[in-house]
Amino acid sequence: MTMAQQKLFIYVFSQNYFLWNGIRHSLAWLPPSRQEYHWLTQMTLAALDERLKDLPTGALCIIVTEASRIETLRQLLPRGVLVMGDNEPLHTLDALLNSPSAVQVSSVRLTRAERKVCALISKGYAPAGIARLLNKSQKTINGHKRSAMHKLSCHSSAELWTRITQFSSALA
Questions:
Q1: First CA to last CA across the chain, in angstroms?
Q2: Which domains, ranges and CATH numbers included, belong to the chain?
Q3: Using CA atoms, how far apart are residues 105 and 81, in angstroms rounded to an integer?
Q4: Confidence check: pLDDT of 142 > 80
């Protein structure tokens, strides 16, 4: 799919209205039918996962967030979703649009099941409750949790909870 045909979704996780407005104006050259902007001041991992699930095939998704949350989001999000810091110049966004494959992407990614378990943990569910909710074995849920902890370099459940809620709690 060529750049001219690709639909672009930009999610800005920030309280900074001027950042969101600047991004919209810097990409005014794109046809309106190809762009969709979302300014999200409050977001949870579960809500983000739902939004990304509804993306059309072949769409380019760019998330702009605070620099301190970039690495966590790169690990929590599926492949193909690009993450950019709010402290980067806007011409970096043009570079992403012109060559999204040239962007460095973290090699560690959570699977969909691991993201779902992390999203439910961030909502306050215990592994037993998640197992009942997803109709899975508690051992399976604990396996997904352990795998996510390993990928996110967490050594305790509390550290995992802090890591997966850090980007949404700063916005709330």
A1: 37
A2: 8-102 (3.40.50), 112-169 (1.10.10.10)
A3: 9
A4: yes
Residue 134's identity, in one-letter code, is: L
Q: From start to end of the chain, where are the E strands? A: 8-13, 35-40, 60-65, 81-85
Half-sphere exposure of 11 (CA within 13 A, CB side): 21
Task: Give the mean pLDDT of the chain.
Answer: 79
User: Can you say whether the dihedral through the CA atoms of 117, 119, 124, 125 is positive or negative?
Assistant: negative
**Percent of the chain topping pLDDT 90:** 15
- Per-residue CA distances from 127 to 11, 160, 162, 167 (Å): 30, 13, 16, 22
pLDDT value for 98: 67
Residue 82 · residue 61 · CB < 8 Å: yes
